[in-house]
Amino acid sequence: SAVISQKPSRDICQRGTSLTIQCQVDSQVTMMFWYRQQPGQSLTLIATANQGSEATYESGFVIDKFPISRPNLTFSTLTVSNMSPEDSSIYLCSVEQGADTEAFFGQGTRLTVV
Amino acid sequence: TQLLEQSPQFLSIQEGENLTVYCNSSSVFSSLQWYRQEPGEGPVLLVTVVTGGEVKKLKRLTFQFGDARKDSSLHITAAQPGDTGLYLCAGVAGTYKYIFGTGTRLKVLA
Fold this sequence. Notes:
The complex is a heterodimer of chains A (114) and B (110). Chain A is an all-beta fold and 114 residues long. Helix content of chain A is 0%, strand content 54%. In chain A, the strands form 2 sheets. In chain A, strands 2, 4, 5, 6, 9, 10 and 11 form a 7-stranded mixed β-sheet that branches. A 4-stranded antiparallel β-sheet of chain A has the order 1-3-8-7, with no helix packed on it. In chain A, strand 7 and strand 8 form a beta hairpin. Chain A starts with a strand and ends with a strand. Chain B has 110 residues and is mostly beta strands. In chain B, the strands form 2 sheets. In chain B, strands 2, 4, 5, 9, 10 and 11 form a 6-stranded mixed β-sheet that branches. In chain B, strand 6 (55-58) and strand 7 form a beta hairpin.
């Protein structure tokens, strides 16, 4: 199994500012994933981050708005740039491991933009 | 676009009652997973079903994968307050490719 530490766990930010979310895994992983989740809703994949290469973004998400870093096999960051209230959400990082290709998640970052 | 629709969206029941949550798609998946998420936490895997028609039991939870591998169900027997949470199905469409369902929020009242 993988243990994922994500921080901050929550933040309240002013519109127009940026927030960087950190994700640390206790083992080396090839791919790390970033999801957005509206409270009580399902997960939407933002992007997939592979160490040493540019992240791959899903439809509707762009690098200028959600730049991602992946400096090594255990760490990644997601930045939410030029925030607006519509960016208020829970952001989760995830990795995949195990024979069942189980997805492990951090506890999430609850972002509120005011 | 691959979509996984879950029903019901919300469910509030009394302790001891039974319930079934459905996860439906028009797409075929290589496997399907069920996760439970509690407030302030990330989703946690409950089970993976791989073979069409497969049934897996986890204590009071019974999971079934449809014969055509397009749908799944989760049945909870004698629900308890500890079962409260957001239940998510996830279709595995390939390596590193998860499609998460729309979610079912369950509340079990004592």
